[in-house]
């Protein structure tokens, strides 16, 4: 009778459940526990280890930059209803990709991601928010340029260590070199000439009064045909360097490098 009941239990169950029921019956009450279930190997470690989110530019001495993918309006806040700060094109007046320094990111109430960027517009120091899908992927730099208008020199740091220092010429009092936080917008060699030297860097800084930089208003860092005037206050706002110094800077400083002028 007991055997018949056991067979009925097994036959009424299917698949894996039948196997488990059979094992339970065979063990029976009062029997010694088997190794089934107790000695199974531990589950493997999780293959995908998802770390904690990290803020942009969280690593020391690292800055991020990007370029404009499509014409877009930068806004004062991360929402399409915010006021416009600037209209951004894909390219600069010099024909290079329009570079933006990345300062942060935020997700709006609708789930859209916005990126806060430094802008090459007046007033100097302006920032704005653009949709993430309007800009390209992030790129990183480990350099930083410091321009000292009082000492008339420029210092380039990489990973926090000084790698270049040189004397410079800056703007005359009536055409001052603007102070603030900027970035290297492009590297230009097609303006090579006696006046500009072998190469020039375009920056996001703009003169509020006058400059001789192409397209008007943008402050550049370039060579010179008058090295004897350096150091000094000799320009319309641009930063002039002796030609050997600007060539060396060209090898060491990439586009996207943050600039502090003080």
Describe this structure in words.
- The protein has 262 residues and is mostly beta strands.
- The protein folds into two domains: 63-140, SH3 type barrels, CATH 2.30.30; 143-261, L,D-transpeptidase catalytic domain-like, CATH 2.40.440.10.
- It has three helices and 16 strands.
- Strands 8-9-10-15-13-12-11-16 form an eight-stranded mixed beta barrel.
- Strand 4 and strand 5 (113-118) form a beta hairpin.
- The longest helix is centred in the N-terminal third of the chain and has 13 residues, at 15-27.
- The model is unreliable at 1-37 and 46-54 (pLDDT under 50).
Task: Specify the structural class.
Answer: mainly beta
Helix content: 10-25%
Q: The biggest beta sheet, please?
A: 8 strands, mixed, barrel
In whole angstroms, how far apart are the ends?
99 Å
Count of individual beta strands: 16
What is the fold-level CATH name, i.e. the topology of the largest domain? L,D-transpeptidase catalytic domain-like
CATH architecture of the largest domain: Beta Barrel
What is the assigned CATH homologous superfamily of the largest domain? L,D-transpeptidase catalytic domain-like
Mass-distribution shape: globular
Beta-strand percentage range = 35-45%
Number of structural domains: 2
Uncertain ranges: 1-37, 46-54
Average pLDDT score: 83
Strand order, sheet with most strands: 8-9-10-15-13-12-11-16
* Series of H and E elements: HHEEEEEEEEEEEEEEEHE
Provide the gyration radius in Å: 32 Å
At the first level of CATH, what is the class of the largest domain? Mainly Beta
